[in-house]
Structure prediction request, 485 residues.
Amino acid sequence: MADDQKLTTREADFGAWYNELVLKSELADYSPVRGCMVIRPNGYGIWERMQRAMDDMFKETGVQNAYFPLFIPESYLHKEARHVAGFAPELAVVTIGGGKVLEEPLVVRPTSETIIYAMFAKWVQSYRDLPLLINQWCNAVRWEMRTRLFLRTMEFLWQEGHTAHATAEEGEAETRLILGIYRRFMEEWAAMPVVTGRKSESEKFAGALRTYACEGMMQDNKALQAGTSHNLGQNFAKAFDLKFQTEAGGTEFAWNTSWGVSTRMVGGLVMTHGDDIGLRVPPKLAPTELVVVPIYRAEEQRAQVLSVAHQIRSDLSKGASPVRVHVDARENMTPGAKYYDWELRGVPLRLELGPRDLEKAQGILVRRDSREKRPVPLAELSRTATETLAAIQHDMYTTARDRRDAHSYRGPITYARFREIIDGDGGFVYAGWCGTDACEAVIKEETKATIRVLPDPEFQSPDAPRTCVKCGNDATVEAMWAKAY
RNA sequence: CGGGGCGUAGCGUAGCCUGGUAUCGCGCCUGCUUUGGGAGCAGGAGGUCGCCGGUUCAAAUCCGGCCGCCCCGACCA
Prediction:
């Protein structure tokens, strides 16, 4: 009986585990439209906290939010050749409006570079108008063939930042600045270790000069691209005539960047931290940090326990370090059933509160990550909860980082060994690359692994690889290879 | 788009081969007893068996067509 309530284990079938977890923990559900999803309150609550954290960080750097339309004239997409070539296969196009065939079809935005830089061109005249730093939170549509909840859906939520700068250096600096913000968000908020670096030419954004990305390792040892930051150079400025007058009086095209993080991050969170019991949400992203489960028999106990529970919620929500508390007062469930329920949903801390505890003025505090239980005097609960939440946040990060490192491979490596790793348990393989498209393509063809990033210095191996893992010629760069989502 | 699987109550399923109007579990409703790791008992509600057509006295079951979804391979946040 209890068996059909359990999740498929990660080891038995990682994909099935993921789907069951997302559905059972009520993060999301399938929609009537193939490839689309409904994000339920549990999932949206996490997304809202992600939004808030990132939004604050963007704004600290001077970025302002705005909103650009969902519909983009089809002709705009065609103004940047590589951009349209990259996105054409996955466009949704509106051809009829109000019952009439439109003169010009409207593309449902797959991303907004074209319309945003067209608008920037109207707004920017002089170097004094730069930099222009804009972000929007919106949905985007890409007609995908194979979809998975959160990881790839035809419509997804994200933020897309778009900036314009006076010099190439400023554009590059902005691209790197945002990549750093993404990294900080993923490490400090999502407790998700990432490797940052540059994308190879074949993997970069359609229309970009350079693409940088954060790559996390999921528990099946596959890579998940969790955020990208593009240096667009002057490609779009030239396509949309985004020019400005320089201080010296000349005219120059602006330098653009764009960068985005999507609801895919929620899927990354699940695959980074989930276990066979359910979800584990890092405290800083958890809509509820602590759930109080009241235990009682007699009616007078019920009133007493609930009264203390609500007092706890009220007390913890105040003060210098407020804790987000929920009291689970459902009458039709036993305490044990509630424990399973909240563990499935990933709430970081649980306080079990019964008559025996009240006698001792304590509660039983249970960590979701380690499932460790211990009695805590109610008088110290506020401090203990805050400290424990911080410890959970910290431990979740180090646990994820340690397992990432345990499945990362560095040092001299043969192609045979490379294939053995990729075909076996998988992981991140750091290896030399000659820099040619040919070797990259052959490796992808033969192993399904791709270059996730050319790692930034802090992620490079102490001893730079000397030769290309495929052709044996001199390596021009170190590449991090993995199978990816 | 190729390969595989599946559509039966809100969810998960049995029945299909060998036609006779649907099984079981979870959930839901009512009542009582319960409540420290997935409560028990009793009663109850809930179904155009994905859709269309055919065969037949009779179709969830056999035949044909269609639709949808999920999973696995080529593109991608």
Remarks:
- Residues 446 and 462 of chain A are 28 Å apart (CA to CA).
